[in-house]
Specification:
Helix content is 77%, strand content 1%. The protein contains 13 helices and two strands; from the N terminus they run ββααααααααααααα. A hairpin with a 5-residue loop joins strand 1 and strand 2. Helix 3 crosses helix 13, helix 4 packs parallel to helix 7 and helix 5 packs across helix 7. It is flat. The termini are far apart.
Length: 327
């Protein structure tokens, strides 16, 4: 290449393709600005629009959930406000009159309730039925669930199918034969009879639920514990029960709520002299049709106690789920 082919560079250098470099120099800032203008604002607008849409959807979902929760809690709120109204005010209008006249609220109804030995005693009777029936179902169901999941014995699968079949047996079918059985052995109209009935009908679901949950435990974990010298009882107590905490907690919640809110079994098998809360409230309605000053606070107490138990065990349930997920 000769010296005449070399083009002087305006920046002080020389180049064999001077016009090309000049074009690049001329088009560089404009091209950069064009690229920034083409991609920068559009790229900034798209994430902002997505974030705005996500926040709008999340806000709408929160509003919907709050409204649904308020609608679900409206009967409870109405019962609570009714329990603080006098019978005269309740006869004049509904509980919503408190919104315009909050001075009508009074605690006289709860004073009458505490003075009513039938209602207060029925709450204690309900505890005496619900707590043992729940504990028996949890203990027996956990042992049976572990046996069906990890122990080998003849007829295991057929026996488990029989337990599953018991889930479809309604309570009403067993009322008459069990009444005759309890009457012959002296358990009719006793607290022990009600506890045994609830335990018997709660066990099929407990065994089904816990067996399926225990069966998901890794076999390698159990075999490692056996290699370390753990027996079946120690393996059940140290490995299976901690991992089965979520299922056991949920089962305890449902069993307690079912027994606490039951009226049919208690009406048939419980002692009429010491009935549980559901039967006692029903007797108040039948005997005193206008006894709303006792019925309203009694019904609210019988409803709020299961809610307290539910929320208390729900916290343990969530922690058990997290612990099981980490393990």
């Amino acid at each position: 290449m000769s010296r005449s082919d070399v083009t002087p560079d305006p920046a002080g250098g020389t180049s064999a393709d001077g016009p090309g470099r000049a074009d690049r120099a001329a088009s560089g800032p404009a091209g950069a600005a064009g690229r920034a203008g083409a991609s920068g604002p559009a790229g900034a607008r798209a994430p902002f629009a997505e974030r705005a849409a996500g926040r709008l959807a999340a806000g709408a979902l929160r509003v919907f959930l709050v409204l649904a929760a308020l609608f679900w809690l409206l009967p409870t709120l109405g019962l609570l406000l009714s329990s603080f109204l006098s019978p005269t005010d309740l006869n004049k209008g509904g509980w919503w009159q408190v919104l315009t006249a909050p001075s009508r609220l009074t605690a006289d109804n709860y004073e009458r309730l505490l003075a009513n030995d039938t209602i207060t005693g029925s709450l204690l009777n309900t505890f005496a039925i619900a707590v043992p029936a729940t504990l028996l179902v949890l203990v027996l169901g956990a042992f049976a669930g572990y046996a069906f999941a990890w122990l080998e014995f003849p007829g295991r699968d057929w026996l488990f199918l029989l337990v599953v079949g018991l889930l479809v047996v309604p309570v009403q079918v067993a009322l008459i034969p069990v009444s005759e059985l309890f009457g012959s052995i002296g358990l009719f109209e006793t607290t022990a009879g009600v506890v045994l009935f609830h335990t018997a009908f709660g066990l099929p679901f407990a065994v089904f639920l816990l067996r399926n949950f225990f069966a998901e435990i890794p076999r390698e974990l159990l075999e490692a514990a056996r290699l370390d010298g753990a027996g079946e009882l120690r393996l059940f107590a140290r490995v299976v029960l901690p991992l089965g905490g979520p299922a056991i907690a949920s089962l305890g919640i449902f069993q307690f709520l079912w027994v606490w809110n039951d009226m049919l079994v208690a009406l048939v098998f419980a002692d009429s002299a010491s009935p549980p809360a559901t039967v006692a409230l029903q007797q108040q309605v039948r005997q005193f049709g206008n006894n709303i000053d006792v019925l309203a606070p009694g019904a609210f107490l019988s409803m709020v106690i299961p809610l307290v138990v539910f929320f208390a065990f729900q916290r343990q349930f969530v922690s058990g789920v997290m612990a099981g997920a980490i393990k």
